[in-house]
Amino acid sequence: MRVRLLAWFVALCLVPAVAFGQPGGTQPRFRTETALVTVDAVVVDDRGQPVTGLTTADFEVLDEGVAQRVEFFQETGAPGSGVSTPARKPGRYSYATNVGAQATATRTFVLVFDDLHLTREQGEQARLALSQFIRVQLVDGDLVSLVVPGIALRWHARLPGGRDELLRIAEGLQGRFQPEPTFERITDYEAYRIHVFQDEAVANSVDRRWRNYRQLGRESTNLASDRGFQPQERGGNAGVIQQDLAIRAADVYSRLMARNRVTLGSMKAMVEGLEAVRGRKSVLLFSAGLIEDQEQIDARHVLDAARRANVAVYFIDVRGIGSGSAFATAQFGSPLDTRDVGFANAQIELEVQGSENLAIDTGGFSVRNANDLNAALGRISRELSSYYLLGFQPSRPGADGAYRKLQVRVRRLGVTVRARKGYYVTGDRVARAADVLGHDALQPVTDSPYDLDTIPLRVASYVFGSPTAGKAVVSLAIEADLRAFGFITTPLALTDVLELRIAATHLESSTAERYDGQVEMTFPLGTRLGEDAWYGLAREFTLAPGRYQARIAVRDRNNGRIGALTHVFDVPALDGLRVTTPIITDTIETPTGLLPASPKPVLVARREFPAGATVYYQFSVLGIPRGARILAGHQVRDAAGTIIKQLEPRAITPAPDGALSRFGGLSMKGLPAGEYELTLTVVDEAASRTIQLREPFAILPPAHAQ
Questions:
Q1: Signal peptide location in the record (predicted)?
Q2: Is residue 316 over pLDDT 60?
């Protein structure tokens, strides 16, 4: 596969002046700014209901124990607060754009379905609770990311439009963790204590259990004579754990580390992607829990990222009430040794201590011992329906990279405040060090659900023919506003490098196609980079039918600015009569050379064309028997619905290879500026079937013509 590069300037890329503002002067950084530290605070009463109507005077913010002056204050979500979080309305045209995307205060949820730590039964409980949360607790304007670590799925949705997609994904989720069904089973916590700490007391408890089950040649413990763990009697073997038990613990711990690494890595990536935007940002972890592993730094990385991004983690323990030790169930037959009952019950808490601590340390909380998860999730949603944003400039700035403790208080009785417990000071020195060490600037943006318009972008998708069985060629046409780039002037040209990353996720299979590349842009000195100067390129994928979500991120290597957006498109079923996505453009490539050839339309994302231009269209008809008679025609209507141009359906002449395509040109000369719609009609006479495709477009005022 390849990248097709096309530079479209001036007359080729005219756009309306009202559509674009001058790009911002600085790139939104995915780091905590030291100039103004922001913290969001949830305040609830003793019944768990949000407390609204508070003012700056009601709050006290302490940085390392020192009271700070609150310089920014905003109440979000409460009735009458004046702050709303509406979803951005979809555009009239078929392309997606990040123009106008703003980092506004809104509720952002990352829903982590921890399939790697959920059994099939636990996964079903988590799936039902997750679906109910999406269906009932999320409201219009919420921005939601659904993450499934085991299948590397990330799907972003802004409600209400994305609710159905989230529910479709949730319907197919299931737990993937399969506990050992044998009597030799060792829990994650036991494996951790034995392998990492050489804990003889825990090893002795496991050994007794194996004896009760008569495993690996062991005989049942004689309770009358056995005195339990006596390290002083081990002699030269003190500190040495039996080999078969040590090997078993090492194996279980190794697999635990692998699962934890994937789950925590997914959480870290998503949390880092939330750093650029203010507002209440929450991660809901639907899981059976993670142990507190002092040897694993992945949990620390998640905590650090959450502190930097001001993200609260909520742990949803799907095990419910009465989840006792597995070794006390009928599945394992023999009862536990009475000396081990206390430790077995303690493990119920120890198995989830890591996820509980993560929630507490980030300003969230855990939902534990609840069979009615829906009620508990409703509590989370209510708490997040109203919150306060507070900003302050530290009175005593700390050194770069230092962690500073925060405390938020409310001067009222009977209320509880939930807020992050600290933040990291990250100045320019730390930022530069991260860049020198190879920080991947595009990855947090690719994982983020937010659209960033520091580099304005437009993206359109075109679905073409099927080069291989069951798949179609899909081209993503991407356009970037050149005014946002920091071109370097050389004696001969303007130069810059555009870095591009695309991740296209398939809704039905949860698989993703990815592309990374860069484009060297060079233009002659004196090139005018006005509002009509956009750079276009196209990337081809071969995709199966279904719905896709493409995350596109672009970075200017010279000035570090980043633009990002999400584009959702469909690849239709590839059987029967179908029509490729029409190419609508005002730009064609004129063939050169001695051999005759037809003009070739250039893929563009935009649907705004200059006054007097000729608008071309091209499409192909697929899935019909060779020799079938296919007719095609078109209509152009203005905003009032009046037909201003029309071609009645006429037969398409097959190419020598039998392919059926229609290429046409429509002169816009003399037509006033405004909104129009092109309707393409395809008729299969033999099957008495008609397909109509509608493409809105606009003619710009003459002032935009060159």
A1: 1-21
A2: yes
**Stretch 421-431: mean pLDDT:** 64
CB-based burial, 444-463: b 16+ in 10 Å, e otherwise: bbbbbbbbbbbbbbbbbbbb
Contact between residue 533 and residue 9 where contact means Cβ atoms under 8 Å apart = yes
- Could you give phi then psi for residue 327, rounded to 5 degrees? -80, -5
Helices 298-309 and 243-272: crossing angle, nearest 10°? 20
The average confidence (pLDDT) of the chain is: 84
**Beta strands 562-571 and 403-410, pairing class:** unpaired
Q: What is the three-class DSSP state of 214?
A: coil
Sequence-distant (≥ 6) Cβ neighbours of residue 44 within 8 angstroms: 50, 51, 383, 415, 416, 418
Q: Which amino acid is at 400?
A: D
User: Domains in the chain, please, with CATH?
Assistant: 1-27+454-574 (2.60.40.3880), 32-87+105-181+264-437 (3.40.50.410), 188-252 (no CATH), 576-706 (2.60.40.2550)
More confident residue, 331 or 273: 273
Identify whether the C-beta of residue 667 lies closer than 8 Å to the C-beta of residue 654.
Answer: no
3-state secondary structure (DSSP) of residue 680: strand
Distances from the Cα of 197 to the Cα of 128, 188, 497, 530, 674, angstroms: 38, 13, 51, 65, 73
Tell me the pLDDT tens digit for each residue of 99-158: 877 555 578 999 999 999 999 999 999 999 999 999 999 988 889 999 999 999 999 998
Helix (H, G, I), strand (E, B) or coil at 567: strand
The angle formed by the CA atoms of residues 272, 278 and 279, to the nearest 5 degrees, is: 105
- Measured distance CA(489)–CA(685) in Å, rounded: 59
